[in-house]
Amino acid sequence: MDGLSIDFAAHEVLIRATKFMRVIRFLLVFPVLFISTAGAATVALWTFESPNVPSTITGTTISGLAPNSGSGTASGVHADTTTVFSSAIGNGSANSLSANRWAEGDYWEFHVGTVGFVDLQLSFAQRSDNTGPTNFTLAYSLDHTTFTTIGPSFFQVRADNSGGAWNSSTPNANTSQTFNLSAINVLENAPDVYFRLTSIFANPTAGTSRIDNFSITATAVPEPASVALVALASLAIGRRKRKPRNTRNTRKGNEKN
Ligand SMILES: [Ca+2]
User: Fold this and answer.
1) Out of 6, 17, 32, 176, which residue is the most buried by the measure of CB atoms under 10 Å away?
2) Ligand 1 mean position to 91 CA, how many Å?
3) For residue 152, what pLDDT is reported?
4) How far apart (Å, rounded) are the C-alpha atoms in residues 118 and 37?
């Protein structure tokens, strides 16, 4: 082996080492990007605490209530124009969303987008005063027109005199509701999802009902951009694996010469 061949071999070792380090860098960087965008996440959470404490409004509608984390809007709609929407003591917190004057069909509504999320989990707390509504339905809609009831035909909201009382320091577990929505695939990766809690209390009442800690969590899936980057990284690694064979062929060509 002459001096030229030794120099060439040393040069190729250097090239291969450099390529190896590039592959390692891809493996280290891109899986981190991939993993960092997957996992449990909050789609939206309304605690109704500062700076999103509901204002006092008299009328049929309160709307545009921002969540304390995530994004979306909450609203309330009643038939009675003298309804008062306001904040009141929450479930172990200072504030919740409250309304009086409930008729059958009055509701709380929560609007979110779930693009990038799968396997939704829903939880919230509700309580009523002793004359407030105690039976609600939970339903979802993707178009704000057709609503589909989830789970049981209705669930019970406890009144103060049946273990439902709230104070500002200790959450009352009796008043919490949880719904595993992971099997409802149409709720996943949807630009608009509406959840509605509707009173089916038949007799109109001046009583109040409150809601707090409305939480939508889900599994975050990688955004298309991240998936594309991972695919790109795989391609790059594949190319780097094939390249040394070409280099070897070139060397053989050189050796023949
Ligand atoms: Ca609260």
Assistant:
1) 176
2) 6
3) 79
4) 13
Q: Mention every residue, 6+ apart, whose C-beta is less than 8 A from residue 8.
A: 251, 254
**In one letter, which amino acid is 207?**
G
Position 33 pLDDT exceeds 90: no
CA–centroid distance, 94 to ligand 1, in Å, is 6
> Kind of pairing, strands 205-220 and 96-102?
antiparallel
What's the CATH number for 40-220? 2.60.120.260
Going from the Cα of 65 to the center of ligand 1, the distance in angstroms, rounded, reads: 13
For residues 133 and 128, what is the distance between their CA atoms, to the nearest angstrom?
A: 6
Domain segments of the chain: what residues? 3-37+223-256, 40-220
Lowest-pLDDT range, 59-68, 88-97, 221-230? 221-230
Cα(101) to centroid of ligand 1, in Å?
A: 21
Please give the distance, rounded to the nearest whole angstrom, from the Cα atom of residue 48 to the centre of ligand 1: 5
161 CA to middle of ligand 1, Å? Answer: 21
What confidence tier does 153 reach under pLDDT thresholds 50, 70, 90? confident
Rounded to the nearest angstrom, the distance between the alpha carbon of 213 and the centre of ligand 1 is: 6
Cα(146) to centroid of ligand 1, in Å?
30
